[in-house]
Design goal:
There is one protein chain. By secondary structure, the protein is α+β, with helices and mostly antiparallel strands. It folds into two domains: 82 residues, Alpha-Beta Plaits, CATH 3.30.70; 113 residues, Mannose-Binding Protein A, Chain A (Roll), CATH 3.10.100. The strands form three sheets. Strands 1-2-4-5-3-6 form a six-stranded mixed beta sheet, covered by helices on one side.
Amino acid sequence: MNKKILFMGLITVVLCHLSSVAFAQNVINNNIKMIESELLLPITTKHIDPESYYLQFLYTGKNKKFALDRIKSIQKHIKYPMAIQPYNTGYRLYVGIIKGSDVTQIQKLLYNIGYNDSFLRKINPSSIREDIFFKKIGIIEKIEEKTIIVPYNKNGSIALFSSLEANLICQSIDGHANIALLSEYGGILSKFDELLPIGIQYRFWLTSKKTVTRVSNDLVIKNVGNKEVRYPIICINRGIDYYLP
């Protein structure tokens, strides 16, 4: 009996570890995002204040560690969210997500530290939908304050997204929000009254390849092979006092 309990405990630890590793492939830390290689970001020469963009300042054919080290060195001079995206055999390096009103200032900051050329890439409008609104559900208070934000359709139903949309929807709030972690989903789906029935009905995006749902008092993780399927998400804004209109 004791051996069986020990075995089940080890399985739980392994699953949680694997989930954390999978999430890290999409969010390296609160200020560096990993963008899916399949996501198309067309170059544009114009920018409009309210719209969202990535500003590419470098492509490197070297490995991920080199790309991250370069990003971290630039973060000493530029205090904006940043991202990397696998492309061909290397990585594109971006500042973003940023608003059009910030583009000129960031280009000047990049120029001052030796990056004379940059490409403005517009986020596909279909990836950040205009028919949704973000609803603040509550706040988790542990080590840091975390605001829980859930996207809804304008008709009041919970919004569903593809795997590519899921990565961008949370980031589009202000560049600091991410999809909730496995450890956060457990508390959210069992604690907040508004989400109790939703947590039973739906699977939620955990990463771009995994979903999580609540069954009784347990969380069940499932792999997703079809990129066309759509699920809701819960966004977490960490350590930022975020107000929704």
